[in-house]
């Protein structure tokens, strides 16, 4: 009897129940939006997590003493607003061998424009003649050992003097930065199962005699380090090494993305945990989470490869000087956040990353 009464009550009130159509449509729209954002976070997070490895690096933006982030820290919400305006990240690659003062083999500036169109990776030649704060004029790569000192070298101090030198050279604010050692690069490459690269010219190692053919090939960690150390015998010397680094970094992004190594916070945290001991980072205000929160705002995560325009090496020290005509215009575009306009006017200055 009670069951009959309940059925009758449901029948009487069923016409009063609001339609579920609008609610279901709203849920479907929200689900689609979440899937779109998730795909953008996964693709962009992968790119920015490896962007800058001696040509594009791992931006672990936490104080060195804090260690690598946990998975929860990579997915958690933050009350801090997403950064507005242009963002500049300094990336320094070094060959760190114990107590030997390490030179900066690669100095790059990752510029994320305020319109969030796409990132720009600017190579600053290691042999560029620059004034170094508290020291004489020297090559750009000398700033790191002058800051780091000996026994053992302090990577954080080496980074800081390099940061000051780059800030003076470019006139832009450096928001944060990272120092990546070859040990970290070797670990990162092996963790993603090797990196495919397509080299435009044959490279023979001056250290191991290994030959890298002018062809597509997959590099393990040891081979990657060997390739990225090479500048002798290349037609463009250090600039040729910077070019190979950009090709390698693009392959690293693709390999990590294809294998899903960095597409979830748990695996990302594990990877950064493996690489973390070999990183030194800027104790600035920006964090990795802050940078990754920029990803959904980028229209493209594929970087534009650029290099500060310079002339031919001169003298026995093989210094290079900034190009007197192109460099001032380039640096003005960087300072004023107009690199897109610069690229449109000077397409020949864009360096392919594939």
Describe the model.
The chain contains 12 helices and 12 strands. 40% of the residues lie in helices and 15% in strands. It is globular. The protein has a single domain, classed as 3-Layer(aba) Sandwich (Aminopeptidase), CATH 3.40.630. It has helices spanning 2-13, 21-50, 71-75, 143-148, 155-170, 182-191, 221-229, 238-259, 265-275, 288-292, 326-335, 339-345; strands spanning 87-94, 104-112, 120-123, 129-131, 137-139, 176-181, 195-198, 203-204, 211-212, 216-219, 279-281, 304-307.
Can I get a quick summary?
The chain has 354 residues and is an alpha+beta fold.
Quickly list its features:
354 residues, alpha+beta, Aminopeptidase
Q: How much strand?
A: 5-15%
Alpha-beta content class: alpha+beta
The assembly state of the depicted protein chains is: single chain
- Estimate the helix proportion, in percent: 40-55%
Number of strands: 12
- The name of the CATH topology is Aminopeptidase
Uncertain residue segments: 37-49, 52-77
Helices and strands, in order, run as: HHHEEEEEHHEHEEEEHHHEHEHH
CATH class: Alpha Beta
| Domain module count | 1
Estimate the global geometry from the Cα principal axes. globular
Strand count, sense and closure of the main sheet? 6 strands, mixed
What is the end-to-end distance? 76 Å
Strand order of the largest sheet: 11-6-1-2-3-12
Q: Measured on Cα atoms, how large is the radius of gyration?
A: 24 Å
- Name the CATH superfamily assignment: LCP protein
CATH architecture: 3-Layer(aba) Sandwich
The overall pLDDT, averaged over residues, is: 75
Tally of separate helices: 12
């Amino acid at each position: 009897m009670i069951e009959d009464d309940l059925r009758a009550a449901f029948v009487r009130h069923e016409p009063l129940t609001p339609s579920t159509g609008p609610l279901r449509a709203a849920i479907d729209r929200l689900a689609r939006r979440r899937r779109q954002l998730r795909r953008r976070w996964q693709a962009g997070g992968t790119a920015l997590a490896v962007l800058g490895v001696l040509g594009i690096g791992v931006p672990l933006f936490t104080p060195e003493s804090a260690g690598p982030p946990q998975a929860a820290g990579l997915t958690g919400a933050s009350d801090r607003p997403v950064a507005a305006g242009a963002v500049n990240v300094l990336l320094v690659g070094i060959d760190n061998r114990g107590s030997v003062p390490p030179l900066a083999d690669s100095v790059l500036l990752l510029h994320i424009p305020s319109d969030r169109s796409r990132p720009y990776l600017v190579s600053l030649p290691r042999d560029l003649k620059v004034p170094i704060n508290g020291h004489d004029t020297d090559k750009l790569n000398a700033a790191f050992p002058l800051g780091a000192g000996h026994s053992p070298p302090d990577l954080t101090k080496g980074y800081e003097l390099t940061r000051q030198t780059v800030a003076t050279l470019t006139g832009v604010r450096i928001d944060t930065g990272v120092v990546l050692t070859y040990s970290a690069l070797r670990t990162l490459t092996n963790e993603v199962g090797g990196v495919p690269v397509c080299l435009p010219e044959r490279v023979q190692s001056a250290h191991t005699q290994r030959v890298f053919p002018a062809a597509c090939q997959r590099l393990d960690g040891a081979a990657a380090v060997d390739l990225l150390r090479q500048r002798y015998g290349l037609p463009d010397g250090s600039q040729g090494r910077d070019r190979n680094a950009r090709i390698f970094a693009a392959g690293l992004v693709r390999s990590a993305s294809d294998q899903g190594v960095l597409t979830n916070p748990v695996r990302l945290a594990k990877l950064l945990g493996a690489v973390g001991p070999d990183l030194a980072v800027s104790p600035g205000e920006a964090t990795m989470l802050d940078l990754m929160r920029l990803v959904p705002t980028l229209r493209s995560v594929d970087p534009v490869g650029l290099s500060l325009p310079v002339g031919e090496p001169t003298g026995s020290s093989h210094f290079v000087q900034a190009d007197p005509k192109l460099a001032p215009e380039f640096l003005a575009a960087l300072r004023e956040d107009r690199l897109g306009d610069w690229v449109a006017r000077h397409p020949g200055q864009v360096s392919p990353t594939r």
